[in-house]
Design brief:
Structural class: mainly alpha
Shape: elongated
Largest sheet: none
Distance between the termini: 70 Å
Number of helices: 3
Helix content: 40-55%
Order of helices and strands: HHH
Length: about 90
């Protein structure tokens, strides 16, 4: 039997993190909130490609430490540094 809207917990207006949203929905049943949902339509156009490159373990650890200190992901740090290096070595147009 479905609970009435008076007995269900309100959905928080904003979740502070994905983990917080997951915690809420792990402990609540969407069917209790079905009347609050609406149809959504959207398109997804993923253009990103991933290229894997092996790193020496010590270098990978140092890169991870540098990235953490700068408050970015290791992937972001590597992409920024490699972009800078390529720009330095590429002939100017």
């Amino acid at each position: 039997m479905r609970r009435s809207s008076k007995t269900r917990a309100p959905i928080p207006p904003h979740f502070q993190s994905v983990a917080e949203a997951a915690e809420f929905w792990d402990s609540h049943d969407l069917t209790d909130y079905w009347d609050l949902t609406r149809e959504a339509s959207f398109e997804v156009d993923i253009q990103r490609r991933v290229f894997l490159t092996a790193l020496e373990p010590g270098l990978a650890k140092k890169l991870t430490e540098c990235a953490r200190k700068q408050g970015v992901s290791t992937e972001t740090l590597i992409n920024v540094w490699l972009t800078e290096k390529v720009a330095e070595t590429s002939p100017r147009s």
